Amino acid sequence: MNNTKWWQTAVIYQVYPRSFQDSDGDGIGDLRGMINRLDYLEQLGITAIWLSPVYKSPNDDNGYDISDYRDIMTEFGTMADMDELIEKAKLRNIRIIMDLVVNHTSDEHPWFIEARQGKDNPYRDYYIWRDPVNGGVPNSLRSSFSGSAWEFDEASGQYYLHLFSRRQPDLNWENPKVRQEVWDMMNFWLDKGVGGFRMDVIDLVGKIPDQEITGNGPKLHEYLQEMHRETFGKHDVLTVGETWGATPEVAKLYSNPDRKELSMVFQFEHIGLDQQEGKDKWDLKPLSVNELKQVLAKWQIELGNEGWNSLFWNNHDLPRIVSRWGDDGKYRVESAKMFAILLHLMKGTPYIYQGEEIGMTNYPIKDISEAQDIETVNMYHERLAQGYAKEDIIASINAKGRDNARTPMQWDATPNAGFTSGQPWLHVNPNYAEINVEANLADPDSVFHCYRKLIELRKNNPIVVWGEFELVEDVPEEVFMYFRRYKGETWLVTANFSPAPVTLEMPEIGLVSEFMIGNYARDAADFQQLQLQPYEAFVTKLA
Ligand code: GLC
Question: 83, 54 in Cβ contact below 8 A?
Fold first, then answer.
């Protein structure tokens, strides 16, 4: 265990800066706002903040389109604020993990402005250009934000590639100069003392556009090993790759320490379980709890010692878990805690997305005019043109749209939830008078205090970090149950996914009286005949 890394025992909190805390009344969150809220994050007990992009950006995709990697978005503040954030966070033992968005830049990045000047420009080859084929697009690659991934450039008569919006041109990673620019930029941030990088769609950088290979290209791992060697390999940092298509086999390539690539990846297999086979994220189907158990258990077991899991339900691209698979009405508090307990007792590094820790919910829209997100807006128009019914598209947006989790953080019951004194850039959820930080802090039984205790439990009990995982198979479908075992100790995690009570009979486990945490008042559990309450979850230590 002498190879233990700080990030293996860590809990990470994701801040979406645009929506966290505004300090100057322009309706947009900023770095000063975050600095002012560090005490709150310290109280929660987190180890590090994953900061969604704060770099200079025209905000076609809310900062995931960067025009200067070494400067700060005007609305968010200045580099001096950023340095102060890193320093003040450090004083509280909180590290700052930067979002590294290097699959693409903004079309306003000076490299792209140069590249556009013509075929002979020295920066031309920083991006991916192709001649037309039969007078049209080079091939059928699609953008994640609808339409072709190729955009025609009138001036040169060529197309450039953009796997996201046409204002996010893809960088050409085959060009060693591009990689060198990225390494230099990463070293610039490492020298500032950041705690690591979350790597945006990193599995795309090894793409071979001409073969329509995007994810997991043949040179991907070579590039990551080069990155490790040239940048963070010399630093004690966390690196986590966003890898949508990863299987456990692929995840081991990224995160087996012997290979010198990344600390861990975000895998999304569980996240896709309510989507129809072969369709995209908007085409919904009900979640099968059984499938969820099998998928999460597979990841827990298969990485073994050759990799490390990241644990998450939410981020800025996903709907809120309590609205998605829980109950954001009657059992909001119970189901929010159930998801927390279930995830935070697993093996891996947990990530909390801002607002999750107070049980924030999705924002219901009635009309597309309320949507801001580029992915949502483009999909709406595309599907409308394809003949989908408006109500069905709005239903998909309410279920899966990215704005759901991007509404402003709910701090208190004052106007705009204490997020801003101005006009918020995105609507505040109308339930803020009930669901907010202030109310959570004041109530010892709140969702917040459940998260706080879970983080404490992880800090104080090596079994939570290191214990072996074993799924209990022989239980009713809606019950998710697993053991953790470490050095002769065994913990049992029990969670009911159902809004109805469920009876469990497990005489072999018998009466358990050491109760670690739960979302209902209970100080002993008799498994000879146990009535689980709606969305009940608890953790017990077995004798
Ligand atoms: C990642 C980000 C998402 C962004 C996309 C393009 O998936 O999480 O927010 O739109 O990459 O950068």
Answer: no
Question: How many whole angstroms separate alpha carbon 220 and alpha carbon 222?
Answer: 5
Q: Is 200 a catalytic residue?
A: yes
Q: Closest by alpha carbon to 338, among 541, 514, 46, 538?
A: 538
- Structure token digits, residue 6: 């700080």
Q: How far apart are CA 208 and CA 70, in angstroms?
A: 29
Q: Is 81 a catalytic residue?
A: no
The label of the residue with tokens 């192709």 reads 130
Is residue 171 within 8 Å of 103, Cβ to Cβ?
yes
pLDDT at residue 1, rounded to an integer: 45
Q: Residue range 110-116: average pLDDT?
A: 98
Q: Is 99 helix (H, G, I), strand (E, B) or coil?
A: strand
Q: Which of 14, 16, 18, 61 to mutate to test the pocket of ligand 1 (most atoms within 8 A of CB)?
A: 61
The stretches of 359-488 forming alpha helices (DSSP H) are 374-385, 390-400, 437-442, 447-460, 462-466
CA distance 266 to 99: 13
**Residue 441 reports pLDDT greater than 90:** yes
Q: Dihedrals φ, ψ of 12, to 5°?
A: -105, 140
What secondary structure does DSSP assign to 122-181, as a single string? Answer: TTGGGB-EE--BTTB-SS--B-TTSSBSEEEETTTTEEEE-SS-TTSPBB-TTSHHHHHH
The CA–CA distances, whole Å, from 474 to 338, 411, 471, 481 equal: 20, 42, 9, 9
Query: Which token pair is 541?
Result: 């230590």
Identify the residues whose C-beta falls under 6 Å from ligand 1.
Answer: 61, 64, 101, 164, 200-201, 242, 316-317
Q: 523: pLDDT confidence band, cut at 50, 70 and 90? A: confident
- Tell how strand 502-504 and strand 530-532 pair up: antiparallel
219 vs 181: CA distance, rounded Å: 18
Closest-lying ligand 1 atom to the alpha carbon of residue 374: 10
Which element (helix H / strand E) includes 188? helix 176-191
CA distance 172 to 219: 12
pLDDT digits (tens, 9 = 90+) for 232-280: 999 999 999 999 999 999 999 999 999 999 999 999 999 999 999 999 9
